[in-house]
Specification:
Strand order of the largest sheet: 3-2-1-4-5-6
Helix content: 25-40%
Order of helices and strands: EHEHEHHEHHEHHEH
Number of helices: 9
Number of domains: 1
CATH class: Alpha Beta
CATH architecture: 3-Layer(aba) Sandwich
Radius of gyration: 16 Å
Structural class: alpha/beta
Shape: globular
Number of strands: 6
Strand content: 15-25%
Largest sheet: 6 strands, parallel
């Protein structure tokens, strides 16, 4: 099984998350994508999150649009504080699965600040999905430059899940400008789908 792992606070989940997911499913030939709803984000301190159970339930509602998406908050259950801990846990317990970490281009810009970002690059291939306003900055980000030799060309996207890490790809194409921050800032009448 080829499984994409797409982590985040999903506060709230929205159509932009679906766009990234369906892009990854199609372009990478994935069988499933698991949305890993994080209990917290150490890089976004000071921003209160809705309870994990509420965010998981709302994400599951959005994810119903595609039966290949599964929503989980397992990181809280295993005590994972950082993405690398959750990914190590999955790789150890599911060695037959071919995992691909999925992130938006905005996340690549801060990836060098993630705890164990080099470990994550060595654990599984990574797919970076283009986001409005981040194309040029993401490709010149510290992590992109550090791992430039591990970047594969877009026409090889279907082979990414089978590649030994480090391997990463930047996928261009239609982009969604939706963001959870904008939806939260718009207030309770804004829609997430």
């Amino acid at each position: 099984m080829r499984i994409g792992l797409y982590g985040g606070s999903f506060h709230p989940a929205h159509a932009g998350h679906l766009h990234v997911t369906t892009t990854a499913l199609r372009r990478l030939g994935l069988d499933r994508v698991w949305w890993l709803v994080t209990p917290g984000n150490p890089l976004k301190r000071g921003r209160p999150l809705a309870p994990l159970s509420q965010r998981c339930a709302q994400a599951a509602e959005v994810a119903r649009a595609d039966p290949r998406i599964a929503v989980t908050g397992f990181e809280a259950a295993i005590g994972a504080r950082f993405t690398r801990d959750a990914l190590h846990w999955l790789v150890r317990r599911r060695p037959a699965r071919r995992f691909v970490w999925i992130m938006g281009a905005d996340s690549l810009g801060t990836f060098h600040r993630w705890k164990g970002s080099a470990e994550i690059m060595g654990l599984m291939p990574i797919a970076v999905i283009d986001r409005p306003g981040h194309t040029l900055s993401a490709l010149s980000a510290r992590a992109a430059l550090r791992f430039a030799g591990a970047r594969i060309p877009e026409p090889a996207a279907l082979a990414l899940a089978d590649m030994r890490p480090p391997a990463w790809i930047y996928l261009h194409g239609p982009r969604s400008g939706l963001s959870s921050t904008q939806i939260r800032d718009a207030g309770p009448r804004a829609t997430a789908t």
